[in-house]
Write a sequence for this structure.
């Protein structure tokens, strides 16, 4: 272990003597978080995310009930059934709600008839409105047309004491699928609102992006050791491959870990991002596994690529695409369902799902444990592959 | 090719000498990369207190041979023993007793001279007191003690070379491999390096020395081997090489090692 410590210590000494590396790993991400946090949403602070959405039910049929059922499953969402006048008052006059949802007459019937159904979302132009629009849209997108239709027909038949004919239902479902139109369209209208603390999203989002962008440091360091000849020199010294890799990774891990802790710390202390005694353990575990997964990914890339020039665009691509689809730039739950599924291959997705759960939705540690474990497995797989492909010497 | 030159395959000037207590014994070393043989049937022995010169044009197989002796590469066939230890079976122990001074400046430029030395010393597991003593002794020897707190990137080429050598000696090795240690250094640094080699020799270290400077090999090496196309084509003391060469190469009497080298390896460029 002393040899691992020697490699780690030297790496840290090198970092301490490179002011530009310090700027890149810490100062730049913090400045960006502050800028994006202020510019996008004004830096408002409500602590835990909980949004109440007024619902106006001019239709009370099966389709409406099913849609509402799916909406209720979203963490932090509370639906308040009220009259249209009351809903308007909350959104347009009091401005204490970001928007309301209106299920128009015939919504359920349209679905049961295999027709396209539409509902109205009337929102303000602020964050609350954006969130409501996105939430409703994401539910509408994932609403399974066939399932919806068949269930509605079955319930309709039951209500009318009729026999449910699966053949007719299936025929109608096929027709609807062939039309290739979504089962529910959302008609959005602008109307004033709810907000959540932007820094709860921006701080972990950018921290996750920068920890991955920072991998170019690890890769560059390994590549540089290859070209300078220090690695082959170490390979003929009593420093085994595992000790070399561990020392290098430990340095990157500590840098990444500190990077995220400092960024989230600043967001919590100065901008009231939601980090407190309730979620601190979960956040700590997430940062730990995120740093591990990212470091292992970096070592894998360093093992696969032969030059720093070849690896740099790939790291940038992984960081940017991961941020785009993995929820670093936008809350992951606002992204289309298929994007959410595809994003599971990214580190960002698991990390942000966990951070959002803890910091925005106030979920418990047990809920986000799956994300923590996923990150740990992600890191372990990358590490095993890195060990397999890392070239050190023929004997080490 | 010059008229004076002979093909490598045409001459084997001297067979390897078999010693009773060699520090390094390499027998029939072969290293293949795919179908290509980088080293083919190389045998050599190096005694304690001996400077053994390994000369050859670019791409001749010098580095591959050193890499096998230093345990970096596994021979495709053949054996190497260092201080009686087989490199295939005892690489961990061997790494403790060898010192490799590569041609590249394998040091960390951002770190200070002392940090470099301490780092490599820690890799060999030197404890704090022993480390301090060893670092001070070596840096004094290579004339860098007063500059120990300076970042290496501020050093001249000669200073970096000397530090590169000091790092290779940090573990007080029994067998030292020096790969062109005087490339690009000023006469003062070169002289300092020669003194270090003489000191190592006096301490009874076995030294494998490669260089492109023939006069250097003439001055420093007790025995010299010339390798070309992966094969050892000549081996012996300077006098033996000159004498044998004179006998075998009738076209022109060799005036020195450079002449022998060119006669054996030819005048063609060996751009890698």
């Amino acid at each position: 272990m002393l040899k691992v410590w020697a490699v780690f210590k030297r790496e840290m000494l090198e970092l301490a003597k490179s002011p530009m590396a310090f700027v890149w790993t810490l100062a730049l991400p913090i400045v960006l978080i502050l800028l994006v946090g202020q510019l996008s949403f004004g830096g408002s602070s409500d602590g835990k995310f909980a949004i109440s959405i007024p619902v106006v039910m001019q239709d009370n049929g099966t389709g409406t009930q099913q849609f509402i059922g799916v909406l209720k499953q979203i963490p932090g969402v509370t639906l308040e059934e009220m009259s249209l006048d009351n809903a308007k008052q909350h959104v347009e006059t009091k401005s204490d709600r970001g928007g309301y949802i209106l299920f128009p007459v015939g919504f359920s019937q349209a679905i049961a008839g295999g027709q396209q159904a539409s509902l109205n979302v009337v929102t303000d132009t602020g964050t609350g409105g954006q969130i409501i629009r996105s939430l409703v849209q994401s539910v509408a997108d994932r609403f399974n047309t066939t399932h919806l239709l068949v269930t509605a027909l079955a319930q309709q038949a039951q209500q009318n004491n009729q026999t449910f004919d699966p053949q007719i239902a299936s025929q109608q479902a096929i027709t609807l699928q062939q039309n290739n139109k979504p089962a529910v369209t959302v008609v959005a209208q602008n109307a004033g609102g709810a907000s959540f603390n932007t820094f709860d999203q921006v701080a972990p989002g950018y921290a996750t992006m920068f920890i991955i962008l920072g991998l170019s440091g690890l890769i560059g360091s390994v590549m540089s050791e290859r070209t300078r000849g220090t690695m082959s020199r170490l390979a003929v010294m009593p420093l085994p491959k595992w000790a070399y890799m561990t020392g290098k990774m430990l340095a990157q891990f500590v840098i990444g870990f500190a990077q995220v802790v400092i960024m989230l710390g600043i967001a919590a202390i100065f901008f009231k991002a939601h980090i407190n005694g309730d979620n601190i353990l979960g956040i700590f575990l997430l940062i730990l596994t995120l740093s591990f997964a990212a470091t292992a990914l970096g070592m894998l890339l360093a093992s696969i690529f032969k030059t720093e020039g070849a690896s740099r665009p790939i790291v940038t691509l992984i960081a940017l695409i991961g941020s785009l689809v993995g929820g670093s730039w936008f809350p992951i739950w606002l992204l289309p369902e298929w994007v959410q599924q595809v994003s599971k291959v990214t580190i960002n997705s698991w990390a942000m799902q966990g951070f959002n759960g803890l910091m925005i939705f106030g979920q418990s540690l047990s809920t986000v444990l799956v994300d923590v474990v996923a990150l740990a497995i992600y890191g372990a797989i990358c590490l095993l592959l890195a060990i397999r492909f890392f070239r050190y010497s023929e004997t080490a | 090719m010059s008229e004076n030159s002979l093909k490598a395959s045409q001459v084997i000037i001297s067979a390897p000498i078999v010693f009773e207590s060699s520090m390094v014994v390499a027998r029939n070393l072969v290293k293949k990369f795919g179908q290509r043989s980088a080293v083919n049937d190389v045998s050599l022995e190096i005694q304690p207190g001996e400077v053994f010169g390994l000369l050859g044009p670019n791409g001749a197989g010098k580095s591959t041979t050193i890499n096998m002796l230093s345990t970096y590469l596994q021979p495709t066939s053949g054996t190497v023993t260092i201080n009686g230890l087989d490199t295939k079976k005892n690489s961990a122990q061997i790494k403790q007793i060898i010192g490799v001074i590569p041609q590249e400046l394998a040091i960390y430029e951002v770190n200070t001279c002392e940090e470099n030395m301490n780092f490599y010393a820690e890799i060999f597991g030197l404890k704090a007191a022993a480390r301090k003593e060893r670092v001070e002794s070596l840096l004094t020897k290579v004339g860098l003690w007063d500059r120990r707190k300076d970042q290496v990137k501020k050093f001249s080429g000669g200073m970096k070379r000397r530090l590169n050598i000091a790092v290779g000696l940090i573990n007080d090795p029994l067998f030292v491999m020096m790969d062109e240690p005087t490339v690009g250094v000023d006469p003062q640094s070169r002289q300092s390096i020669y003194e270090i080699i003489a000191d190592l020799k006096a301490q009874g270290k076995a030294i494998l020395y490669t260089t492109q400077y023939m006069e250097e090999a003439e001055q420093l090496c007790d025995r010299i081997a010339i390798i070309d196309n992966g094969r050892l084509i000549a081996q012996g003391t300077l006098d033996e090489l000159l004498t044998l060469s004179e006998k075998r190469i009738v076209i022109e009497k060799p005036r020195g090692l450079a002449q022998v080298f060119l006669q054996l390896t030819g005048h063609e460029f060996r751009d890698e």
Summary: Confidence is low (pLDDT under 50) at residues 1-13 of chain B. The radius of gyration of chain B is 19 Å. Residues 95 and 185 of chain B are 28 Å apart (CA to CA).
